[in-house]
Amino acid sequence: MSPLFRRKAAPGDRLVTLVRKPGCHLCDDAQEVVERVCEDLGVPWERKDISEDRDLYDTYWEQIPVVLVDGRQHTFWRVDEDRLRRELAG
Superkingdom of this entry's organism (predicted)? Predict the structure, then answer.
């Protein structure tokens, strides 16, 4: 199938990853948005802590919180709820 005509993934087939660290108020805010959007749309999500993963730390330490959608960076620092909804619905 041509990449131009990729089938739209079902919500349950998507994955949102929140990369965060303890004691980060922006991370707490981001998690609230991710939880709400994912629950509303039926999209699974996971939380990863950069203090427990050296590769994530090396990649994202200046940008946390970081939101990945299906393994690709969607946003960092502040999560725009409407933008995340569009990405997951699209």
Answer: Bacteria
Which amino acid, one-letter code, is at 2? S
pTM: 0.87
44 close to 50: Cβ distance less than 8 angstroms: no
Question: What domains are defined for the chain?
Answer: 11-89 (3.40.30.10)
If you search the block for the tokens 């050296």, which residue do you land on?
54
pLDDT digits (tens, 9 = 90+) for 45-81: 999 999 999 999 999 999 999 999 999 999 999 999 9
Distance in angstroms (rounded) separating the CA atoms of residues 20 and 6: 31
Pull the structure tokens for residue 13. Answer: 């087939």
Structure tokens at 33: 């948005």
